[in-house]
Design brief:
Number of helices: 3
CATH architecture of one domain: 3-Layer(aba) Sandwich
Oligomer: single chain
Order of helices and strands: EHHEEH
Strand order of the largest sheet: 1-2-3
Shape: rod-shaped
CATH topology of one domain: YefM-like fold
Low-confidence stretches: none
CATH class of one domain: Alpha Beta
Amino acid sequence: MQSINIHEAKTHLSRLVEQAARGESFVIAKAGKPMVKVVPLTEADVVPKPSPFGFMKGEIEVPDDFDTMGAQEILEMFGLAE
């Protein structure tokens, strides 16, 4: 596996990223000491962010009288019931 010093990695980052994406892993070293290993992502690594909208679709049922639910009780609480 290829080892590249950090200065060279900064200088040639675009080329190195393309190389890693093609499956050619490499190590970035600082003063000759290996620091990180750069490897390509796999499908399993890229998990889609869940959508905040519709995540409960099919789990909750809204009753037809939703807009008027509890109306009588609210009127009674404020002394407005007829």
